[in-house]
Design goal:
Helix content is 19%, strand content 30%. With 339 residues, it is of the alpha+beta class. The two termini are 27 Å apart.
Length: 339
């Protein structure tokens, strides 16, 4: 435990002082495997994020020394009632290249597009977008002053409407537009936001964002954001990622301050007594938390060490199939959980 505390302290100093990979900061042992670049500042606490207006090239130069990036786009339909045409959320991702300030970081950009949303009786508008994003990396996107968390591409890209604010609460960020993004009275007559973006150490995953109409309510829309799964290694997770993440971070602050590495994933099992991660499977052909074929007796003996106890109590689980009753016995027999 003393060595773990020492490693956390060293890593935190590196986080505050440099752009170096963790391995370059003298951390040894299992933690040395986490060789990821660290932003000088990571916005994990709640409150307003710093938003700056920039050109497209200002952003791409942060992510690549050639000032160009290769992007991957997805589009989700915003189910605005009372329209013909479509309202869209465009999500864009890319990865920082070697040698760039944001080397190894994942860039995320979003655009709310109501260009072809035609109001049948009223003109619909979107005033906010909410995204579960987690900790935000900070860079100097505008080339001067304090580090920034959110940028708006007001030149060299599409759009006409920027952001009034971006406020983080737990893992969720609420982006409020400077003016509502509205549909029009004819196809092509609506408006679109500028692309706005931010960065994370964590890789992309499909998520459900929330678009907030000016008239009230909320609308679910498909998007892309950092993977906040507790079973996936990557950047630090906030305690708000879930009850287990909070338990792990209370026991091991490295996981919320520096990075969610293989030890943090292991602690999902050892601290939370949660068996949902593949790490807990041992040699079992599938998770104890999913139904499927019968599991070999003792296949998880080096990890969760639960299968033998269940099969002793209920031989069906090792001879016929691992059904919902076997899954429930993870809790009732072994005292562990699949939450």
């Amino acid at each position: 435990m003393r060595e773990r505390v020492r490693s956390t302290t060293l890593a935190t100093l590196c986080l505050a002082a440099s752009w170096l990979p963790i391995a370059a900061c003298g951390i040894d042992g299992e933690r040395a495997a986490l060789d990821e670049p660290i932003a000088e500042v990571s916005q994990e606490t709640d409150g307003p994020l710093r938003v700056v207006n920039v050109s497209s090239s200002s952003v791409t130069c942060v992510f690549n020394t050639s000032c160009t990036v290769t992007v991957s786009d997805t589009v989700g339909t915003i189910p605005l009632p009372g329209i013909s045409g479509n309202a869209r959320l465009q999500s864009r991702t890319f990865v920082g290249g070697a040698g760039a300030p944001a080397a190894g970081f994942n860039g995320y950009e979003y655009r709310v597009d109501l260009t072809n949303a035609v109001g049948i009786l009223d003109i619909p508008c979107i005033s906010q977008l909410r995204i579960g994003f987690g900790p935000v990396a900070s860079f100097q996107y505008d080339g001067a002053g304090p580090l920034d968390q959110v940028y708006v591409i007001t030149s060299g890209g599409l759009g006409t409407i920027g952001l009034a604010s971006a406020v983080k609460s737990g893992n969720e960020i609420t982006f409020t537009f400077a003016a509502p993004v509205c549909g029009g009275g004819h196809p092509g007559g609506g408006s679109t936001s500028f692309f706005f973006g931010l960065a994370s150490t964590r890789a992309p995953s499909a998520i459900t964002a929330v678009a907030v109409p000016s008239s009230g309510g909320s609308l679910s829309v498909a998007g892309t954001a950092p993977n906040l799964d507790k079973c996936t290694t990557g950047g630090a997770l906030a305690a708000e990622a879930g009850a287990c993440a909070a338990e792990v971070c209370a026991a091991d602050s490295f996981c919320c301050n520096v990075g969610w590495d293989g030890l943090c994933v292991r602690e999902v099992r050892t601290v939370c007594e949660n068996l949902t991660c593949a790490e807990a499977n041992g040699t079992c052909p599938h998770s104890l938390c999913t139904t499927g074929g019968a599991l070999p007796n003792g296949c998880d003996s080096a990890k969760a060490n639960c299968v033998a106890a269940i099969c002793a109590a209920d031989s069906f689980c090792c001879s016929t199939g691992w059904d919902a009753i076997c899954r429930n016995e993870v809790n009732t027999v072994c005292g562990k959980n699949c939450d």
